[in-house]
């Protein structure tokens, strides 16, 4: 069985480019076939991953977006200290607005999320089925 992979976007980003990257993700996801609430949910999840990488991670920070086997897949990576296990296992959002804690929870509810994290960095993989 052959798996069709189509690369849509690959680049490095920093704080000053988050808005531009979000727009590129929106355009690419729309071109891949997402629309309506599915598009909005995917872009919001990716935006949360981007802002978390800028806020908590270290450079270089990368994003890659592609389609594979009927899914739209986005990976956001950074070289920071990793995500604490307690932050990954929350079944509810943090109640402290000043310290964050909602991004990972929200991503998990909007898309399929996979996390690889450790002392040398984090990669978040966000996936959604294409129509």
From TrEMBL:
Q: Where is the signal peptide?
A: none
Source organism (scientific name): Planotetraspora silvatica
Q: What name has this protein been given in UniProt?
A: Histidine kinase/HSP90-like ATPase domain-containing protein
Q: Which UniProt keywords apply?
A: Kinase, Serine/threonine-protein kinase, Transferase
Output the Gene Ontology terms for molecular function.
protein serine/threonine kinase activity
Q: Which CDD domains match?
A: HATPase_RsbW-like
Residue limits of the Histidine kinase/HSP90-like ATPase domain? Answer: 14-127
Judging by the UniProt lineage, the source's domain of life is: Bacteria
């Amino acid at each position: 069985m052959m798996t069709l992979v189509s690369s849509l976007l690959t680049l490095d980003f920093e704080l000053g480019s988050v808005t531009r990257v979000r727009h590129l993700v929106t355009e690419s996801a729309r071109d891949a076939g997402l629309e309506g609430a599915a598009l909005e949910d995917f872009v919001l999840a990716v935006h949360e991953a981007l802002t978390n990488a800028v806020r908590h991670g270290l450079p270089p920070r990368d994003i890659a977006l592609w389609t594979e086997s009927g899914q739209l897949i986005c990976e956001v990576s950074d070289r920071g200290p990793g995500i604490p296990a307690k932050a990954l296992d929350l079944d509810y959002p943090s109640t402290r607005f000043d310290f964050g804690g909602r991004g990972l929870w929200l991503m998990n509810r909007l898309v399929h999320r996979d996390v690889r994290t450790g002392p040398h960095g984090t990669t978040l993989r966000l996936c959604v089925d294409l129509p």
